[in-house]
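Model: You mentioned two targets. I'll fold them one after the other.
Researcher: Yes, keep them separate.
Model: Target one:
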Amino acid sequence: MAWKKHSEQVGKLAEGLVKIGALQFGTYTLPDGSESSYYINLRGLPSYPGVYRLVVDAMAALVSSKAPKADALCGIPITGLTIASPVSVALGKPLVYTRVARQPSERLVEGEMRPGWKVVMVDDLATTGKTIISSAKAVEQEGGDASQAVVLIDRSEGAREKLSKKGIALHAFTDVMELADTLYAMELISESNLKSITKAVEGRASRP
């Protein structure tokens, strides 16, 4: 029954992401400098309340299930913070966030965070894990425990393994292959689009 509910949620999310143009195909340069045949852009998510609510509900349930003892959430700018903010309100948990850039006099982590708190890192996607690792380090320097991270979509390109080596457990609502298979079954992407994602995942996952 839980599997069926999850499948239905993934289906609604997949359909919503296509409708708002969040899934794009072509040649894209990712933040780490590598090229990808597809791109997931969730920066405009708040402009679409219906899909935004689907994402917030899914992430709130994920945090409740995987990190029920969390003391606070940490939003990773920019899109991770956009998701973490309403999730923290829904769960009644404090929210902090890390800075993209800061002045020497500014803190690494904004918001009240107490030493020893279990802080769940929140982001939209996991690709290489680099951004999550950087933000988790900032939280740990402030005395927090950043051993849990949640994302909406895991691109399945090695982030989980890299985070695990740093002592961080990654929990994803879905991964890009589940999303792609769902979209293909719903006839919302072509077979060539599906193969494009599959090739990207296989190629990146095989890298050291």
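Model: Target two:
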Amino acid sequence: MPVSEHTLFRMRFEKTGTMRYISHLDLSRMFSRSLARAGIEAAHTEGFNPHPKISFASALPLGVESLCEFADAKIKGDTGAKILEKAKGAFPAGLNIAEAYEPERGFADIDRARFHIFVKPEGFGIREIEELFEGGAQVEKKPGVVIDVKDYICEMAVSMQGGCMLLDAVAKTNAQLFLNPENIIKAISAKFAADEYFIRKIEAYDIGGNVFR
């Protein structure tokens, strides 16, 4: 049996700016084209219409910016450092490969993620938000399914940065418990006005709270 010339690499990438509005399908296509443009040779599927075999950790909600998205692909003849070097200038603005390394864990081991949620406070302050989530905040996760956001939040710290409120929240994002960060905004909006906000995903962790790699 021939030995594979490809090595599995995990690419940690950032999805920022206008890129936060592209769909997961468009992201997949753009990622494949950018790898080809960079001269990074990924393993392809077989058949009449072969395409690069790239697997992503999860679909990021539209409008959410992220500094820690993950894509796995089997790459031929490159090291992590070479992948980063080749990728410079080949990916569109807002889509940036920050790291490339051989993975330590599978995507199924991702348990939670840290989000920074910036909200312009209108008629509420830090204490009101703390009390809201300490007491429990129910939202409709999807039609007919109501959840208590508190059950999905591992930790949260609320502070002010200038005239903006920052919610530093670690929330469950595994297969059994998955919280769309937009539901945190939905919980606030049910009681207060929270029309102006911005969400950024900062980090992903495993079940032990270790940074996912």
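Researcher: Noted. Anything on target two?
Model: The longest strand covers residues 65-76.
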